[in-house]
Protein 1
Amino acid sequence: MSDATPRPAGALRDFARRIFGAAGLAPDKARAVAHYLVEADMMGHTTHGLALAPWYLAGIDEGVVTRDGTPEVISDRGPAVCWRGRRLPGAWLAEQAMLLACARARDFGTATVVVGDSHHNGALAAYLPIATGQGLMASIASSSPSGAQVAPFGGLKGVMTPNPVAYGIPVPGRPILIDLSASITTVNLAQRMIRAGERYDHDWVMDAEGNPSRDPEVLTAGGTLLPTGGLDHGQKGYGLALAVEALTQGLAGYGRADAPRGTNAAMTITVHDPEAFGGARAFLRQTGWLAEACRSNPPRDPSRPVRLPGQAAQARRDRALAEGVTLHPGIWEALSAEAEKRGLGWAG
Amino acid sequence: MSDATPRPAGALRDFARRIFGAAGLAPDKARAVAHYLVEADMMGHTTHGLALAPWYLAGIDEGVVTRDGTPEVISDRGPAVCWRGRRLPGAWLAEQAMLLACARARDFGTATVVVGDSHHNGALAAYLPIATGQGLMASIASSSPSGAQVAPFGGLKGVMTPNPVAYGIPVPGRPILIDLSASITTVNLAQRMIRAGERYDHDWVMDAEGNPSRDPEVLTAGGTLLPTGGLDHGQKGYGLALAVEALTQGLAGYGRADAPRGTNAAMTITVHDPEAFGGARAFLRQTGWLAEACRSNPPRDPSRPVRLPGQAAQARRDRALAEGVTLHPGIWEALSAEAEKRGLGWAG
């Protein structure tokens, strides 16, 4: 089967779950990783979906990923919880942390769950519907102390990661799902473009001497991803990157200062229950007004109506659920090879 | 005395306090407004310091600003508090909300205080040291439902405001103070540049037809402030602007959907106590490592060392405290005129 073949989401999830299970992940971890990678593919975040599977599987084989168990509870003060993730799969930790943060926000009005020493957590937007589906507003900030591709604004040497923050906002109808990184582009996209020999349309990276560039290859020779705002106003991305480092690794008490070996992530989930503030109805009245003012805004290009963040992703997901998931080129071959290695076949 | 005359901070604060008091603000409100406007000037945020005094005074005269009283408590669930600010002075509300959020974060590990229907709150960074001085990490998000200078990305019509978020991060030594807006530049700076007939160095605004521009005058004819990231990657600023609208007006349950008359602001303060997560020492170990990695980063321009956000502002403040506050041109004349109107003289 070629890459253009749409495959049923359920069968694809099951295939991935069996591969991760065969690689040694405990059943609940294999389920979560498979589920959220396929979610990312369905939403169109194809660099953060099943494309990550071979890398995750290598991590399991090498012992970088912990196969089973629970996080160590560093603190639990009700609305404030901190876990040491013991490099368990990031998808499972993110799901569990989001579920806990939502439950605690219902009890206390707001809650923050911080997870340090996690393995990679994939596409943050995929975890937001856990909260928005309950009428809760959530944010997830994430950083990776094992990476250093973003320099402080005005500097040359990579210190931080793209440090995304995702926000899930309930509105009447489909939620707004925002995924916003502190650098213009991401590490995984750069790696894909390097493999494909592609260049950016604009100067989104900088070489080791500080020259702006469109060539992702500069990252392999000491170059860095430019912060959001670029050379013009990159103090904005720099500020956001610093804030995310402090919110994640700072509150976790584990990060770059410990020079972690192997892929390592820290994430901080904060949930607010509108009912505990001005009320759920009043919240939806404001966000509904805002969403409509954006959707009905006169577009700069008449052929491209103004969209809300997450709108296209949710439409893609609907289509994938109805018509099957079409994977980005190369992913199916890599996944099939991983299955074959473990004596598994596609049962779709 | 000309504008270049440095004036003692204490005398300047006292002068402003007496003017606001004579205009009718209750003593505690007059003190807070004077204090934080002078703080902003000392930190170099000169568009958000005493430059705002004539506008605030007009608001008091016109009854837009409430002169005395307390906010209405909409909800109080311990770590989750919501106030209706009754258009009390934003500086006083921001200070009180930050003090409460810090106290509650000490009790619960984290706390969020939301304030709707506030008057203008000035420079957010000025309130952060209340938290960082206690070793707490704070964020303040602010929006103004009475303004609409930022369009959704891809749209032409202003819907949102620059919607800044400020983050205060304790580090060993001076804190990091970040003030990050969702648009490239601000409304107050644009107004100052229009008065001075100045233009931006880059395309930071867009006219009503969607043409990028360096001329702030376009804002007076249906133009908009470009979101952070500009036309290249403005979906980032757009996402942040939406998140801030929801965090502030959404949680407050009061905002654009109510079409408030007169200057109106909403703000949301969230505080995290590192001691309730991975521990205060572990937090400072991470943020100290990060701060040093930024400060010692090889600079792109050898004559401009890499700085941490808030570093220059705190150095300016030190200098102003030692040598006096030098106001931006025009501010002293305007302030003196306001004093004279009320029969007050400078006692510096």
Protein 2
Amino acid sequence: MLRTIFLLSLLFALSNASVQDFCVANLKRAETPAGYPCIRPIHVKATDFVFSGLGTPGNTTNIINAAVTPAFAAQFPGLNGLGLSTARLDLAPKGVIPMHTHPGASEVLFVLTGSITAGFVSSANAVYVQTLKPGQVMVFPQGLLHFQINAGKSSASAVVTFNSANPGLQILDFALFANSLPTELVVGTTFLDATTVKKLKGVLGGTG
Amino acid sequence: MLRTIFLLSLLFALSNASVQDFCVANLKRAETPAGYPCIRPIHVKATDFVFSGLGTPGNTTNIINAAVTPAFAAQFPGLNGLGLSTARLDLAPKGVIPMHTHPGASEVLFVLTGSITAGFVSSANAVYVQTLKPGQVMVFPQGLLHFQINAGKSSASAVVTFNSANPGLQILDFALFANSLPTELVVGTTFLDATTVKKLKGVLGGTG
Amino acid sequence: MLRTIFLLSLLFALSNASVQDFCVANLKRAETPAGYPCIRPIHVKATDFVFSGLGTPGNTTNIINAAVTPAFAAQFPGLNGLGLSTARLDLAPKGVIPMHTHPGASEVLFVLTGSITAGFVSSANAVYVQTLKPGQVMVFPQGLLHFQINAGKSSASAVVTFNSANPGLQILDFALFANSLPTELVVGTTFLDATTVKKLKGVLGGTG
Amino acid sequence: MLRTIFLLSLLFALSNASVQDFCVANLKRAETPAGYPCIRPIHVKATDFVFSGLGTPGNTTNIINAAVTPAFAAQFPGLNGLGLSTARLDLAPKGVIPMHTHPGASEVLFVLTGSITAGFVSSANAVYVQTLKPGQVMVFPQGLLHFQINAGKSSASAVVTFNSANPGLQILDFALFANSLPTELVVGTTFLDATTVKKLKGVLGGTG
Amino acid sequence: MLRTIFLLSLLFALSNASVQDFCVANLKRAETPAGYPCIRPIHVKATDFVFSGLGTPGNTTNIINAAVTPAFAAQFPGLNGLGLSTARLDLAPKGVIPMHTHPGASEVLFVLTGSITAGFVSSANAVYVQTLKPGQVMVFPQGLLHFQINAGKSSASAVVTFNSANPGLQILDFALFANSLPTELVVGTTFLDATTVKKLKGVLGGTG
Amino acid sequence: MLRTIFLLSLLFALSNASVQDFCVANLKRAETPAGYPCIRPIHVKATDFVFSGLGTPGNTTNIINAAVTPAFAAQFPGLNGLGLSTARLDLAPKGVIPMHTHPGASEVLFVLTGSITAGFVSSANAVYVQTLKPGQVMVFPQGLLHFQINAGKSSASAVVTFNSANPGLQILDFALFANSLPTELVVGTTFLDATTVKKLKGVLGGTG
């Protein structure tokens, strides 16, 4: 009994020293450059470290026949400050995750089902493309343009992980054609012709 | 034609500026604190960014009925310097990945098949345990003791990702019982009795 | 006089550019992944950078005959954001700092008095143990299990420093036996027998 | 005299402790993830910290009427390991630095001469465009698509700085059209039509 | 039309995943060790990424015949969290930026006009001095004492960039002579004689 | 027996995954920006993690009546890559560690014996000075000018720790007066008079 008391006092003394193993995001507070402020440890529950939204395929009934379901800090507050996030890719037949970058993270992709042709282009303009089967892993270096495309006739899926809780996602077509960036500037900075730009702006809801 | 030449010269000029998007490890060279030296970009192939060793279950015919198949920089040189690595967990019925830590990385686990009870203990000594189904994700903060255990009657498997190309892996039982750490020191620093320590040293091949 | 005015105006102009040499923690505000928000520089005093709690031995009248007195950001707000913290170890005769890890930092130990046997186990399961005299220094790599034990007949003490303002401290026995982690899970993940686990839970105040 | 000797011995003693303020690159040695190995401090000269290649405009007689002159680690070995690099932009009338990213760095641009319309697109697809005059500064967050275009009738120039010694440079058109990335993959991942892709591949020297 | 709707829903779904490309500082909120909290992305405007205060020379009518105009996070909130800042140096004839350090950043200097003699001293006490012309670049490693001095007969100017949004600026003479550091301590720690110290304290407005 | 074999095979399998908990410096190889290349783990011994050079006072028979004994990576290769280093300060009566900076690290000081007046000056030119007794700790933010002076009549000593294996050490007087920096430049950048500069150059062995 006495031993227990001694030990417990030791325990509490030492525990005082132990903070911030984790920092579950308080999404209502303003972000900082290092992520969201933490909720108090006393309010943290085991379920804060679990995310259940990647268990079912995303809705691929769309123009790209594909879906990206993110589990970044905004969706999965438990990984705030831990330097990791994840997402699920679903590719229906003919599905494609269009050319895109993650400005703040490298990515590891693990194929769950189907066959996926994935690739990236380096700063030196070299092309690295591979067709992957379930269980194969591919790594995409930070910030480089890359894509994933269904290489088979059935659905394909993958889980991807990033070394940032907020990797960002910049889809090339959206960046060029789905906003108010003036057609003249798109033409001038991509060498595409105005007709092509205007057509894609039309499809993607862009203006200007 | 002239245009092409102009552009190509521009291309080569600009490409000179572009180095080290990646650093595929030269495993024959001495490591540095930041990882292995890189092989020359000209020798890098698309296959360097793909790892195929996680597609099949590891051998679980062992005392823990489980297997960890790592894809760290030493196995998957393409992720050297990119701040990420991955591994596959296989848990036969009654399988368990024993209590362990990764000294240098946080971890995200995605359940592929079966049901897994996973948990970790914080510095403040709080316990966070959850039983996960396929598609569920759990995050384990850096350096904390954690475990995974098959919660079902069939096999289970998961893919895990770390935010380091060299996360390390310290298995508690091996650290305590599978080396030459003297029994007296193990007893003195864990409060286990000598009989228990010696028995486990026997099972795990430890000495001292 | 005129010179002074010119210089002072220069001084104030330049000083505007100079912020956040330090970030004394406002412990009342929610933490962020990078530490606590700062109090305003105007409220910072010289005494904020001094900690006086390590000058006297901690209370070693307990089951481990030892004490750890931390000076982490929570106790010593002046080192918030500076990437360093410190602590004092006191070991009465037979005293031991049990097997533990710091999830977020490497550690340097400097022996003040007495003789200390210290050691750590690597990810590769190698054992590094040394007995140290006053003035000797030992370094413990981040996140690895390590311990310190009084190697002499008189009291021993040491000052330790970490390269994080919040290194964390996970004591193995407390993580396993001093909380609600179910006996079944402890047994399953450590290969200890239930009797041993229950006994240590009893001593350390654990449940389950 | 005696004082000098004492002091000099102190000096040398202390200087031994002082290494690696800088790490001038040995470009002949294999890179590491943190940069090139250093040449010995004894071989370092003041001129290693100076780069003279940005003093004159780059050659803008090309299809983009523009030039980027980099001073990255490969051109300016003195900034290896220091986390900074720089470059000069020259834009003849109608000149444009086409849509591009720097995968590993944020960028600050300072306009030297002329008028430049610069902009970037965020992950959230928002457009930030401004027309800048000499002396104005614009910052481009890491990894996002951005561009610079001559907004006047005379030549324009700028100096840009990156917070990496190897920021990388990925020019969108080159990544899509100036390599062997198959037309089918470009079409599939960008929604451009094959005719457009083939035409630009022709202009830019791409194949496939 | 339907396509557009599908795509837009995709767009918004994906955009949810995209946060914190940037973190424009809310200067009214308490700083954190990683910088200021961010204003909400919806309030961010293109002008937040532009700073116009470096376009005109600073006022050099002062004792040093020189001016430093900073664009650090406090002046240019758009670069908060981006790891970069910039400043302008103006040196009238005989102007000098006195011996100083930036405790938290390395620096790249680009000469705009005139001729500047710049130099730094390493930890190993070596001196690296060069006289620079317009367009020449010099790099100053983090934390080392350095200076810039007008080497010509006309005005000189430069733009400098730091790899921190808050590099700090410690001017040697101000640190020693323009505050309340007691003369006795200055004498004792610099080997200057008290007369010199008191004289400079007088000129620079110091006390003690 | 069979169990042991199974476990051992598991052990070796898992151990393969575990690298670079530490990186004991190979001082004969060229440094990299992240530190020295590592010696092979198989050659690492427990004594590599111990440094014995701080146990006895440094020689204070010199002009400053003080000594700094460093245990940086060059002296203590075991802490290469671990982000920490340490040193011992000895101050005879009237001893002083003159005004200096560590360009690459913050510092924690723990007083061992005697009484020490220590202080630093911030970028904002504020002075933070305290007189410390044994057991008191003071923290010095990265890169700022600071000093330690014996405040008592007997010897004093302290152990200091840095959050870098290579913190650097720039002593103000040596940087200004103990090298070839021309008197004219020292005068011009410090406002000291030439007589003072020449005198100190004479004492400290400087030229120019």
